[in-house]
Design a protein that fits this description.
156 residues, alpha+beta, Nuclear Transport Factor 2, Chain: A, four-stranded antiparallel beta sheet, 4 helices, globular
């Protein structure tokens, strides 16, 4: 059986990484694990996981429809975690800054600093501050790990 590399960019096998969280076999212990699992959930179209890990105070009646539209119209290309403030269960919160690359009508990126809250024994995505897109020099290695220059890969 062919093993799938996890969508979250960890370079681990999907079954040994985010699948553990998406299937409920394990719970994320730190905010970065939840952020990576949520990214993978977008990639595999797992709307239920996205809703269940979004803080209940942030739920809206049309969440399912909005997520379905986003998932239908967006192809996720890669994830890069830039910075984590792990937080501790005792503190009850943590932050993860990341860039998620995507394609819908155009190629783009979501650069965000996300806040996560720990309540009732579980981490939740609470909110995110969208940041300015990262700029890449044409001759830098591409963010996707292809070992090509950015201009010859995703910079086209």
């Amino acid at each position: 059986m062919e093993k799938t590399v996890c969508y979250c960019g960890s370079q681990k096998n999907f079954e040994d990484c985010c699948s553990l969280f998406l299937t409920g076999r394990s719970k994320p212990e730190i905010p970065e694990q939840l952020m990576r699992a949520r990214y993978s959930a977008f990639c595999i179209k797992d709307i239920d996981y996205l809703i269940s890990t979004h803080h209940p105070s942030k739920h809206r009646p049309n969440d399912r429809e909005v997520l379905a539209k986003t998932i239908r119209e967006t192809q996720w290309l890669g994830l890069k975690v830039l910075k984590t403030e792990k937080g501790q269960v005792s503190q009850g919160f943590g932050y993860v800054e990341f860039v998620a690359y995507y394609k819908n009508k155009i190629k783009g990126q979501l650069h965000e600093n996300s806040k996560f809250i720990h309540e009732s024994g579980q981490w939740y995505y609470f909110e995110g501050e969208v940041l300015e897109p990262l700029k890449f020099a044409r001759n830098e290695p591409c963010w996707c790990g292809s070992n090509k220059k950015y201009k010859k890969c995703h910079g086209q």
